[in-house]
Amino acid sequence: MQAEAAYRASLESLGNVYVRSQQSGEMIPLKALVKTRNIVGADQVDRFNGFVSAKMLASAAPGVSSGQAIAVVEEEVKKLPEGFYVEWAGQAYQEKRTGKQSIIAFSLALVMVFLILAANYERWSLPMAVLLAVPFAVLGALAFVLARGLSNDIYFQIGLVTLIGLAAKNAILIVEFANQEMQAGLSAMDAAVKAARMRFRPIVMTSLAFCLGVVPLVVASGAGAAARQSMGTGVLGGMLVATFVATLFIPLFFVLLARKRKASRAEMQAADEAADHAAEGAAE
Questions:
Q1: Tell me: the pLDDT tens digits for 13-24?
Q2: Fewer CB within 10 Å, N or C, the chain?
C-alpha cells in the first residue's frame, strides 16, 4: 500500500494517516499513537546474496601478501558477535578459489607426466627417475622467491606448474639416452655416465636460452610488475637449479631404479627356472 503524494510529503503528514482502533473501532490519526523524529541513516542499504552487508575495500600493507591479508581478515571476523561473517568478491574471491585449484593442477600435472612416460618406456620405474628432478626445481624456485622477498601468490604457483615440464624435459634427455645405451648392452652405471656426458651440453644450452628469455620478467617494472617478477623469478630459479643441480642426480636415480628393476627381473627368472626344474623332476 502507498498513500497519495500529498499525504506522505513530510514527516508531519505521516501522522495524519487514520487507522482503526481495535477497542472502539473508530478511525484515529496515527499521530495519536506514535511519535516521529528525524534521524540520520544510510542513503542506501547494501545487500550481498540477499543479506544486509557492509562493503569494505582494502589492500595489503607493504611487505604483506594478499593471501596473508585475507587470512588476517578471516581471523578477525571470528571475533565478531554471532551472526556476522565475511564473504569475498572480486579479486580476493578469485584468489581464494584459484589458490585451492593450484594444488590440484600441480598434482594432475605430475600424474600426467608420469603416465605419459610410463607408456613411453613401458615400465613404471624409469618415469620416477624423471619426476625426482621436479623437487629440485621447486626448491630452487622457492629459494629465489624468498631471497627476493616475493610472496607465494597465484602467479608463482602457475610458474611451478610450468617448471614440471621444464625440469622433466632435462631429465628425459638423460634417461631416454641412458635407457637406449643400456638396451645396447652397457651396464646401468656406464649407460648413465655416458648419457649425462653426451646430453649435458644440449641441456645447458636450451636451459640457458630459456633463462635468458625470462630475465625481462625478473626485472620487470611498471604496472603489473609484481606478477611478472613473481612468475619470472620462480621459473628462473627453478630452471637454474634443475639444470646445474638436478642434472647431477638424475644419473644416480636412473642407476638405482635400473638396478632395482634388473634385480627383480633376475629374481623372477630364478623363480621361473626353479619352477621348471621342479616340473621336470615331477615328470621324471
A1: 777 778 888 888
A2: N
